[in-house]
Amino acid sequence: MRGTPQAVEEEKRKLPLFKTEEAKGKVAFSLFSSSILVGICLIWAYRLSNLPTAGDRGRWLWIGMFFAELGFGFYWILTQALRWNLVRYYPLKFNLSQSSYKLPGVDIFVCTADPTVEPPTLVINTVLSAMSLNHPTEKLSVYLSDDGGSQLTFYALLEASRFSKLWIPFCKKFNVEPRSPDAYFTHNFDLHEHTADAQQRLFIKEQYEDMIKRIEAVINKDGVPEELKNQHKGFSEWDSNVTKQNHQPIVQIIIDGRDTNAVDSDGCRLPTLVYMAREKRPDCLHHFKAGAMNALIRVSSEISNSAIILNLDCDMYANNADSIKEALCFFMDEERGHQIAFVQHPQKYNNITKNDLYGNSSPVLNKVELPGVGGYGSALYCGTGCFHRRTSLCGTKCSEEHKGLWNSETRKDDNRTVHELEEASKVLASCGFEKGTQWGKEMGLIYGCPVEDVVTGLAIQCRGWKSVYYNPDNTAFIGVAPPTLDIALVQFTRWSDGLFQIFLSKYCPFIYGHNKIKLGAQMGYCVYLLWAPSSLPLLYYAIALPFSLFQGTPLFPDIRSRWFIPFAYVFVSKNIYSLAEALIFGSTFKAWWNLQRMWVHRRTTSFFFAFIDCIVRQLGLSQTTFTLTAKVVTDDASKMYQQEIMDFGSTSTMFTVISTLAMLNLFSLIGVVVKVFMGGLECKDMEKLVSQVVLCGLMVTVNGPVYEALFVRKDEGSMPGSVMFKSIVLASLACLNPL
Q: What is the recorded membrane topology of this protein (predicted)?
């Protein structure tokens, strides 16, 4: 009966909670990419049909060029999968408010590992932003995993729990965004207002600053004073035997969301807040972040057991207050929601310079490439800013049984005391709990890989689940981008190492994902999994071209030859398309140019070192390691970054490689110019070398900041003398002894 309450409820339940839109221009793009493919095939044909005979000068250089261009071509083919099926997702929040489904509980995981690299004041801003998201507080729990096992972090969390009684109602009253106190007061506070609301804002700001001063005072003392330890029983967990790598499991429920007395300044219930430091022992593998996440999954199942899990890095604060509501639209859709395992948000940053100096936040990556993989229902799990269905993380396969379960899934109704819950949870956070279980294999995040997030997402999708890449206009979560070149390159070394490790393992998408995920998704994954070996073609070009100029050996067709056309067309059209795409999606020309420079630096250093490390590991000569990315830098480094001045002030081997390649290309270009003016190079010979001269000239132009750091600058970001000396010597030796 159409008018009955039951019928109305059923109609509301069938309302779509999200919609999808396919990108336009597929036909035009297909024609363009097909023309590029024809050009690439002609380049391969030229290399094979004009191969120098045995004994000819430059034969091996030519063969190397063929394999480099073969690599460039196949990798380009993979990248096209990212643009074949571009789909964008839009949640329908109004329909969710009309739905008869009850909202599920949400557990938020925040992970930190070292209070010196990830300051507690940074961590608690993320925690406070998560606690204040728009969701019923009785259905919200926030868990902090502290792999550093630091009482400084625990103390900071206690201070944050007290401040949350003021911060949460303040956020709800004024609809504050971003929800991080530090970000809000830094960018949205006007001291010149004198209204009552402004006075309340000033009061909250003063309370926040007082809290930060107390925390920093304790950090500067390098220990929590006894009078503060006596304020909470949790400090009894730390004794003289507790170290970062050797301590018992620690679980402390700081705010019990079940307690009717745990209320904010407006008398409203507070969300649950839990501190966890899983057990660490020197003789037990702890599996880095994957181990911490799995411990959180188990501990949270004991305390709150919410159906949805959101995981955040400790520097990734909540910006969009409705991010939970938007994510639930995807999970709770009557028609398609039961198929979705996770909803991934883009990684965006609050410290990106106007022209994105280090290429940390490419609009094309966030608006084209990652949504392109998501168009196949196989969005990558990127490790932070991701909402998960708990059951999919715990190893279950996708089935129709998950359809319409929200009303039957409730948070844990437990009558045990806080102490009993803590003791039961400690067992789940102990070293020995996982022995003989499927944790790290079929359950939770997968072990044995530095990028546990990507391989876990792939495994979930191969169990039949789909995933969504959602890029809202109002950014959901915002983090901190690497503010120095050294940190940025180290981060990409770790990522590309772990990604290539996945490709070489049983989880290779073409094998593990065969007949489980679409071919386009398999190719899309491999665009990132093959970052490391993609270094080889570019590195070869960067070395072979200057050597060929020293020898006077042409490696490209004469500019008057018809064979020159495919080389010119592929190079020019690819770069024009790349620039146009960047500008269309909000980038600037200088930002695009900075990104091209960073791709050269990444491929010749980070990706190449990762390739070597991964091969060495596959041979059993080393083990997997994990390097934390520093979240704080010196004031001088920060100032240079804001002024968009590249920081080379490190003796890193990567800087030696960058400067050596820069000098090698500069010397070769100078050598050609000298030969032309000295009459040692005839006009007809020069015509055969034009392509090489242009490419070496581009390398020199890209490396402009490197030469400036080597010879002009005298600040702390200039190239160290030892690096300059080594690079000049190595480049000079190469010039004296070309291949």
A: Multi-pass membrane protein
